[in-house]
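For this section, I looked closely at a protein sequence along with its fold in token form, which I now present.
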Amino acid sequence: MYDANQAHYIAVTGILVHEGKYLIVKRAMHEKAFPGKWTVPGGKMTVLDYALKKKDTNEHWYAIFEEVLRREVREEVSLEISDIGYVTNIIYVRSDGIPCVILSFYATLKTETVRLCSALTEYAWVTLEEAKQYDLIEGIYNELEMLDCFLKTGKSMVWKRL
């Protein structure tokens, strides 16, 4: 039975790290959410991302978010990734009222040639300081900052309320 109080989309995003820089991408103007804004690759998880796969235990599937991130990065920017780690999580309520749980990860590259899908128009490899010059979706800079701190110090930053 469907319960609107329990329904959420689940999405994953990936901050890709290469030679001390982070990949950001610009959303096409025809995109429904955040057209023309800069972000990081990612997308929604579906039931088919796990339902047709063999379970890892009798009852459970493991590491599905990481598999979804690999697929989304491959589809959006044609890159292969490895060494996936967790950054943070976000709840976003879409314009249609459906909440979206977003899990933010980071990863390193296995391949280096970026090719954008039709939902994206530009990309840039940026340092944390350079990222300030881009019209990023709200919160993306903070995620870059959290990851940058972790990569430089080994200490995780927790989201600070504004």
